[in-house]
Design a protein that fits this description.
Strand content: 15-25%
Organism: Candidatus Adlerbacteria bacterium RIFCSPHIGHO2_02_FULL_54_18
GO molecular function, one term: glycosyltransferase activity
CATH superfamily of the largest domain: Glycogen Phosphorylase B
CATH class of the largest domain: Alpha Beta
Order of helices and strands: EHEEEHEHEHHEHEHHEHEHEHEHEEHHH
Pfam families: Glyco_transf_4 (PF13439), Glycos_transf_1 (PF00534)
Number of domains: 2
CATH topology of the largest domain: Rossmann fold
Largest sheet: 8 strands, mixed
InterPro entries: Glyco_trans_1, Glyco_trans_4-like_N, Glycosyltransferase_grp1
Strand order of the largest sheet: 3-4-2-1-5-6-7-8
Distance between the termini: 14 Å
Protein name: Glycosyl transferase family 1 domain-containing protein
Number of strands: 14
């Protein structure tokens, strides 16, 4: 059986689009043995454990900036140590910054690079603290056997960094069957009542990291132009938590904006089915699993077409707004609520898109045949 070593800054229980992608892809590929070097964010995280089809090796400790810098040499050292016994056939680098520990490790084996970045290109490659490392990152791009990206937008990044080889566009997806199940059925009222929200309200929901790019603040501002029975539920955590709560207070929307914290995927499906509209007016986006999950759950989706969203967000499957436009958000919410027949037609088109193109089993098969198979030849 072939062995692949993954470099990833984070993994379960810390979950984002990249972590979900690793889990779903590795779970659906049974003829490859996966190992991973990742960061140990706290003492509660085990240094070594098996999570389904991935053996996880955690190094370092802490979540601050300097801990992440220290992770680079520690991960490189751990990779060299593991390779002596495991004899890996290939490496899978999850996102561009993970090229640094891989190159520092000195492993001379084929590698695939996956781009999942959601921030802007300037943020990723033009900040002062990144510029000293940019020649090494560019070298990592050029040396990859294959680069896999989750959108056409990210594919342009690879070419700009000097990659001239095989480029595979394989998007993220979702568990279509799981998110399509309405387990709540008639219990929607009780679901929200248990969480302190009156059950007769219209619920907008976002599942987002609380960071600038996800524009949660624009949705809060849009509530000022909407009826008072429209509430906004925020599922996620992040550095803007305090800022957004202060904004809620400043705009006198404390009774209509609800912070739920980090929600597990198991519970998230209930939140989606209990809501009326999914919204994330991203300022930048690599692709965005959350949009596909909402489509699979049968929710109308409001989104921008920034970055990788252009690949699948259109008026046929979603309600499109420009970034930084709370007024457009309010208008699209009114359109969804005021035109039920058209809304249902768009919802059905979006769910068909999720089923036909974004199921994880289909995407894992593409990863096995178009990415990993190239590493083994």
């Amino acid at each position: 059986m072939k062995k692949v070593l993954i470099f990833s800054l984070a993994y379960y229980p810390r979950v984002g689009g990249a972590e979900v992608a690793i889990k779903k892809i590795t779970n659906n590929i049974k003829d490859i043995e996966f190992h991973m070097v990742t960061m140990r964010f706290s003492s509660a995280d085990k240094k070594k454990e098996k999570n389904e089809n991935v053996t996880i090796h955690r190094v370092g400790q802490g979540s601050g900036y300097f801990s992440k810098i220290l992770f680079i040499p520690l991960a490189a050292w751990e990779a060299r140590r593991l390779h002596k016994t495991e004899k890996f056939d290939a490496v899978w680098v999850m996102m561009s910054y993970m090229l640094l520990p891989f190159l520092l490790s000195g492993l001379r084996i084929p590698y695939a690079l996956t781009l999942q970045e959601g921030d802007t290109e300037h943020h990723m490659f033009r900040r002062l603290r990144i510029l000293p490392f940019l020649p090494l990152i560019n070298r990592g791009f050029r040396g990859a056997t294959v680069v896999q990206v989750i959108s056409n937008y990210l594919g342009t990044w690879a070419r700009k960094r000097g990659f001239t080889g095989t480029l595979e566009i394989i998007p993220n997806g979702c568990d279509v069957f799981w998110f399509g199940q309405n387990i709540l059925a008639d219990n929607r009222s009780r679901f929200w009542t248990q969480r302190g929200i009156p059950s007769n309200n219209i619920i907008l929901i976002t599942t987002s990291r609380l960071v600038h790019k996800n524009a949660v603040d624009d949705v809060i501002r849009a509530l000022l132009e909407l009826p008072k029975n429209i509430h906004f539920v925020i599922c996620g955590e992040g550095p803007l938590d305090s800022y957004l709560k202060n904004l809620r207070k400043k705009l006198k929307l404390s009774e209509r904006v609800h912070f739920m914290g980090q929600i597990s995927n198991t519970t998230l499906v209930h939140y989606l089915h209990a809501s009326n509209i999914f919204i994330r007016p991203s300022r930048s986006e690599g692709m965005g699993n959350s949009f596909i999950e909402a489509m699979a759950a049968g929710l109308p989706v409001i989104a921008t077409q920034e970055g990788g969203l252009k690949d699948f967000i259109s008026p046929e499957v979603a309600w499109v707004v420009e970034k930084n436009r709370p007024d457009q958000i309010a208008l699209q919410i009114k359109d969804i609520l005021g035109n039920p027949e058209h809304t249902q037609k768009v919802i059905e088109s979006a769910r068909n898109l999720a089923v036909q193109k974004y199921d994880w089993q289909l995407l894992a098969h593409d990863m096995r045949e178009k990415v990993f198979s190239r590493l083994f030849t």
